[in-house]
Amino acid sequence: MPIMTGQQYIERIDALKTYISIDGKIVTGKVSEHPAFKGIIQSQAKLFDLQHQEALLEKMTYESPTSKQKVGMSFLQVLTPEDLVKRRHAAREWALSSQGFMGRSPDYMNTTLMALASASDFLKEKPNCFPEHLLKFYEYARENDITMTHTFIEPQVNRKRYYYEDEEVTIAAKIIGKTSEGLVIKGARLLATQGGITDELLVLSTNGYDEGKGFGFSIPSNTKGLKFLCRQSFVGGDSTFDYPLSARFEEMDAIVVFDDVVVPWERVFYYENIEVANQFMNVSGFQAYTLHQVLSRQIAKTEFVLGVVQSIVDTINIGDYQHVQQKVVDVIVPLETMKALLIKSEVDAQRDNFGFIRPDLATLQVAIQIFPKVYPTFTEIIQQLGASGLMSIPTEHAFAVDDGDLEHYLQSFKDKGEERVKKFRLAWDLTMSSFGTRQTLYERFFFGDPVRLSSLLYQSYQREHLVQRVEDFLKND
């Protein structure tokens, strides 16, 4: 099956009958019609439909090396610098469709799988490792346009550097047995964004010291014993006037519970190998490739934020104030910086030990330092510029029954009352609703703890030659 349509995606997710619990209730019937999921599923379906638009076909797809059919560009392995540019263009097209609010759009996980598959040689001839399983699953996902979510972290029981669970109490998912059918997994993991509305769950463990928690595999979301326990939905309602963002892009996050789940051997990539579990993500191009996709999304999102900011400025005519101009510039500067770093990562790309071209990791590590820090300031800028206007936001129904008061008294320099409120409700949903505050938290920690990311950059960034330059300068009479 080549690239699928949005309708095919919806039908496939509905057919899975995945175990999903939300607010203590198990989802029954079609998940695509559930209030918590229908908006995001419809938005995701539009991404797949974009792949079929004639004007975008060459940008969004490429010819599969095996089936010779059109497959998603986000699966493309990078053999040339031009391939990186193709991937960026496709990622941007999907990011523009969601304005960057879908952090787990399918291309993120497709990129993750592509990166791992491109480094599959690392697994060769290592104990309990099956590179052929990884390559076979990559091809399966590519040829069937599979959607995936993942879970990379353990529950926050005790954040001490070395914490060992009581063997009598299983919390973090681990291997509790091996049968002729496969590994038996019990326990829980965090934090599956879009959990329950994808075909597959990719699980990669980097526990560090416990063989029983060192594994990599993928299983269908409806696997027996697999449960997605969702948080409260942040969808405010169906109205895109009242909730322009949450009604469309609320992705949902879930705790994943493995209740004696059997992972078939053919779906196991590695297990009980601490060295591989700790190194594979770093040895592979995971960080470089995914950050390349992430930065493309963050740029699209920042562009949208800038549009919202300028809309507020124009609507209430505050652009002549210098402090307002400064706030707008405070969005422009990180936007242009991220755009430049994205291009630089491609210009400085190098071929890796596995024969593939990777964007420059150091450049992307610098870029990922920016967005988690500036995104919370974006919300502050919108709140400061919108001020009381973010409170005076009647609903769509209120305008429908209005006798003219709202339309008259809520008008602005540029817009009539309803149009003005529509813009300010967008700004509110972006920065002050439960959806908006979740977005801020999400972007703060999207690629991990910012302090840890800074430490990784400190440890990996090459600067010894610069110290040598200083020493050579001081020796030069």
Walk me through the structure:
With 477 residues, the protein is α+β, with helices and mostly antiparallel strands. The protein has 17 helices and 14 strands. It has helices at residues 6-16, 38-50, 57-60, 81-98, 106-118, 131-144, 246-249, 274-283, 286-316, 322-347, 361-386, 396-400, 405-409, 417-431, 434-444, 450-460, 464-475; strands at 20-22, 25-26, 61-63, 70-72, 148-151, 174-178, 182-193, 200-204, 215-220, 226-230, 253-264, 268-271, 350-351, 357-358. It has a six-stranded mixed β-sheet with strand order 2-1-10-11-7-6, with no helix packed on it. The longest helix is centred in the middle third of the chain and has 31 residues, at 286-316. It is globular and about 75 Å long. The chain starts with 5 loop residues before the first helix and ends with a helix. The mean pLDDT is 94.
